[in-house]
Automatic annotation (TrEMBL):
The lineage of its organism: Bacteria, Bacillati, Bacillota, Bacilli, Bacillales. The keyword Hydrolase does not apply. Keywords: Membrane, Transmembrane, Transmembrane helix. It comes from Salinicoccus roseus. Coiled coil: none annotated. The chain crosses the membrane at residues 6-22, 34-53, 65-82, 94-113, 125-145. This is Cytochrome C biogenesis protein CcdC. InterPro entries: CcdC, DUF1453.
């Protein structure tokens, strides 16, 4: 019952993420918009204070590697567009599809892992997976924004 409720909640959170991303695509990319989400999400790491959520080194490695792999998908599908001297994240038609696939993978992985790992450890693993994925993706966004700003500075310099 709890597993079904958590899965349904994940679907609703995914739907909310689609709407949030669509709204965010209408505003230019800034350092604050890149940095704030991972910083706010990092407070979730306080769960590891409690032994119920603590992970073994192998579980940490698994979650980190999966987060890295999922972040590659996000990085490869994120497109940027320049409008009026500002950098925007272009809305992708694939984003909802990717999100549904990631949610399905999450549910499948959770089902398989729940046979041998406690719910607390699974929660800890999925938090770590999501955090690694978001941090790496946001780092990629930061690099794109810095390159864009550098390009603007170089283009603004008078040619001699």
């Amino acid at each position: 019952m709890l597993f079904a409720a958590a899965s349904i909640m994940a679907v609703f959170m995914g739907i909310a993420a689609v709407f949030v991303r669509q709204k965010a695509a209408k505003r230019p990319l800034t350092m604050a918009k890149i940095i704030i989400p991972p910083v706010m999400m990092s407070t979730g790491a306080l769960m590891y204070i409690f032994p119920y959520f603590r992970l073994t080194p192998f579980e940490i490695m698994e979650a980190t590697v999966m987060g890295l792999l999922f972040s590659i998908v996000l990085i490869l599908t994120t497109r940027y567009v320049e409008k009026g001297g500002e950098l925007y994240v272009k809305q992708s038609r694939m984003f909802p599809v990717i999100l549904v696939v990631l949610l399905a993978l999450r549910i499948i992985m959770k089902t398989i892992l729940s046979m041998s790992i406690s719910p607390g450890e699974i929660g800890g693993m999925f938090f770590l997976l999501a955090f690694v994925m978001i941090v790496i993706w946001r780092l990629s966004m930061f690099i794109h924004l810095q390159a864009f700003k550098k390009q603007q500075i170089n283009e603004a310099r008078p040619r001699s």
